Queue: 3 jobs
Job 1
Amino acid sequence: MSSDRRSYPRRVATEAGEIEFRLMSPADEAAVLAFAQKLPVHDLLFLPRDISEPKVLTAWIKEIERGAITSVLAWKDGTVVGCGTLVRDPLSWSPHVGEIRSVVSSEVRGQGVGRALSQETFALALGSGLERLVVQMTVDQTGAIAIFEGLGFKAEALLREHVKDKAGKSHDIVVLGHDVAQVRAQLEAYGLAGAVQH
């Protein structure tokens, strides 16, 4: 994955103050676990695994080392306040498709951190050469849905009662998609080929 085209750390001003973006590494495991364990369970339902579990985080680190996952951490005052992840599986039937996952702590929610993190993860995805991107979340995460729609994602599927929380309650998941290849082709037709680069 060509995440090396973007340089880190990057700093961005938000209403929550200055946020620093850095690529996640094995050294960040404890800080990310502390971040994940403070998140409300509902915020984790769109993820395929519960990242607040240490064994899941260990597997995540292994996937980063293997190159299947690139994660960007949002740091504020030495603490992880958000994580944006690009997942791709070059050995699957969909090596041209990447999935973006993004979550921020409740302390900085509504202050532009989620938007900045989603934009940063999207920029990473655009630089990776993928043709399609997808993102999924519970249908009540209207703020996150609006952020991704603003980036050009469109609703493609509704998965009814697709996940269950720890209390056994079912929740619907919405899947949004972005056809990067089509957008790139349209920009090239207008002579703007570099516009979807970082």
Job 2
Amino acid sequence: MDGIKRQLVLHKGAEKYIFRYEKGSEDKLLDALIEQAKDKRTSFDWFDAAVVSFKLTQSLIGQADEILQQNSNVRVRTNLSARGTAD
């Protein structure tokens, strides 16, 4: 992993749930959400897990959009004479 820390926050009434994770370990975050939702000692439930999971998905989509935008700025040159046109 590259050590970049990310964070997702869920406010639920007076409670605040903060989930910190490293970029590239989103699967571990999802596992933690499941474990937290199963834990009856907290008010964090399956709906909350779905909300945080959705936030994670939105974050990943945003990152993918940034990568695609960066890559779309690369121009590809074509060689017209390779297509059979005369120079």
Job 3
Amino acid sequence: MTYLAPRQGLFAIILLVSFCLQTLLLVISTDQQLSNSRALKGEQMVAQLIDEARLSLENKDRVSLSVIANRYTSEQDVTKILITDNNDDILVPVGNAPMQQGDTIRQIATNGDAVIGSVALTLKDISKGEIIAMQWPFVIGTMLLHLLLWLIYGYLARPTKEQINALSRDIQDLHREQYMQIDQRSRNHERRSADRQTNDSQTMGSLDEGDSEHKPADLRKFDVNSEVNQYLRTQQNQSAASDTAHSSTTVDGAADDQVEESTQDDVSGSSTHRSSSASRLSATRAFDSVRVQIVFHDEFNMLERLAPAQRLPYLALCTQLLNQAATELLKQPLLLGVSMINEPKFDDSGASVLLKADNSHAKVALAGVMLGKLYLMLNKIIHDKHIELSRFALPAKAGISDDAQSDAMTQLLHSVGKKEQMLILLPNAGLKQISHHIQVQSIMRPTTVYERECAVFDGGNDSMIQRLADVRNSVLMIENEDESHI
């Protein structure tokens, strides 16, 4: 591959500026030379004219003066000759272009000591265009010379193969260093995150239940250690309260028995909750229902500022679209055995659809994914149409999860969800259902357990996309029919 010389365009600009400056200096110097030569020539012509016209000027012979003056106006540089007497009365005004401006040379005519009149000769100005036309060989030669210099520079200054290889090595080394720095920063960030989670789990073990209740729900971490520690603290507080109540009404021996029994119940309850939490977080957890969450991508909280007269009809339209989409989609033979449990309704926080498998062969996970993608397709059309008509509309994003992970999916939609994006948080069995129909990708740089397990919809096969397009068209036809009836 042939590379251009470095900064060849900048060198061309420099050469262009050099050519313009050189041409300007040429015009200025030529104009100065011509002005000096014309001044000398004009003075000589005026002196010669006075010598020839002295007698006629003394006698004020206008005819003779005109004949003498016309011989001098035949020169191209002379534009006007004006001869006056000793009283400044004009005797002869002649010239090629009497209205043209130029340098005027005026001289008094004398006969001995007596003033007999004056002669004024005007020489025309030389234009810059005439100078360039006079010097066209030099101008064209200079332009060709600069063009030749630019071509020579472009040929000689091209980088050689050795220079290109050296530059490639330098770029690779620079990219390698930047990658190592970024990788080191990411490792340090992961290490600090792991240390922070460990410290949080240890600190929360020493806090009481009242402090945990005052924390905002959206700031709590979804991990195994936090949930198990919280459950253990609850059981310990309950057992302590039970011990206090029993110690006030029973003897010391009976109280000790109650403490031992409650401790055994606490340990068994803790083991049961730990196993249930682990099963809820495990990728092999069982499920028979899927929750589809649709939320608006409202970065500037425009929905809250909208007047109820506009917000309520828009939410009703979104609700109608979602219900019709679910109804039409579940008619597909591929989703036989999947039913909708609730009747979704949109509010400021979005809407949620709960799908349930009526038998073990029903593909409830695939139904959830298809419903989420179908609504995103419908919302895209409605959003573009509303924007075209200068009406209010918001883009949407969807989250698909089993019912046990609905809270985690809500958190993911608000933290990492993007516009027109669909997040999927399903166990291995659900991912296996959808693996033959769609493609997914992982979240870049996950910071929590749920972000690491979450997948992002990245496309589907032709059959599924065509099936969704057919259902979308059916829903839109129903919508158009409803509007026509109205």
